[in-house]
Fold this protein.
Amino acid sequence: MATFLDFEKPLAELDARVAELRQTAAVGSINIDSEIDKLEAKADRMLRETYARLTPWQKTQVARHPERPHFKDYVAGLIEDFMPLAGDRNFGEDQAIVGGLGKLDGRKILLIGHEKGDDTASRLKHNFGMAKPEGYRKAIRLMQLADRFGLPVVTLVDTPGAFPGVQAEERGQAEAIARSTEQCLALTVPIVTAVVGEGGSGGAIALAAANRVLMLEHSVYAVISPEGCASILWRTADRAADAAEAMRVTAADLKQLGVIDRVVPEPVGGAHRMPGEAVRILGSAISEELQRFAAKTGEEIRRERRAKFLAIG
């Protein structure tokens, strides 16, 4: 059964009505196909109109939708011969960040990304996509491996932020994030990032200091969550919608500000409605971006990346 967000209640009611009529038609002798067609057309029109005018807070809700594609879905839909690589060779394995070798459209790449999980057990296993220092140190190790073997790096960002627990701080969370960001900037191979859900704070930028930064249409990217911002500014998370508006967290806003390079369209109604199609669209966009660097030297790639981030702001 589909999960509907708060602002989608009228759509949920229409879908329920269509399902009810279909059930009636299946057991009865009355032909109500025309009525069903009318309701489906109305639902489609309402869906398009609703998603054409989403507020920043509504986009934040869509970015967090539990049925949105996650890292494992992109691997399954895009990557051939994926070989996961684990551990930071220092403390342990952090499953909030997953990485490995594979092929995208026949091109060998190294893929790294956040995995949130899609049910209670997997969310706990992956710590809701909130990485600890060993996760970022694993990412550093894998990026260095890619640099050594001349493999482009692709990162998929989907995290509310780095894990804020005491243990993470004791193991050097801030230093690990800074080192991971530094490693992104130091690579002589191209790095392409896609924000596929939430891009939260340093937990996101640690994998996103890239030559090309893409965002799915209904993803969000910010230095802090709207709830966290509202709690600081107004002493209440109830004003999260106001904070999201002021922070300009949407892909369109960030493209206009020059923080990201490309907005990747999603299927009508968001990636969670047609996950397979959303995965395909993003895969094509990433392949196009990687092709930009085919004739460039490692030093050119690194210099362009550094200049890009120095120019922001």
The chain has a mean pLDDT of 93. The radius of gyration is 21 Å. The longest strand covers residues 191-200.
